[in-house]
Write a structure and sequence with these properties.
The protein is mainly α. The protein has one domain. It is about 75% helix and about 5% strand. Helix 1 packs across helix 2 and helix 2 runs antiparallel to helix 3. The longest helix is centred in the N-terminal third of the chain and has 36 residues. The termini are far apart.
Amino acid sequence: MVSLFIFSELTDRVLLISSAFSMGGVAIWSMHYIGNRGVVLFEGESELQLSYGAGFTITSFFIPIVVLLIAYVVIGGGENPQSWRLIFGGTFAGAAICGMHYLVFSDSRKN
């Protein structure tokens, strides 16, 4: 019985981290960069196109993952989460998206 509990707890943590990675890294971050790379400004003039630095780009990948992981932990795993958990979890989820955008736009520049 104890080994089943440990396996279940480990599985829950892996699923929690995996969902933070898929939401923060795959959904939010990659959708943002794929969308922005598809934007052509001023009929494609190369000096007017946006580019991104590697440092902020990599950091902006991990920010939504970490903050969404915090949001998922705050919300908890119960069937009926308390209202304050939903409010704080939703605030953290919004902060993940805003933080990623803030980092990206602070580093975006013209070619």
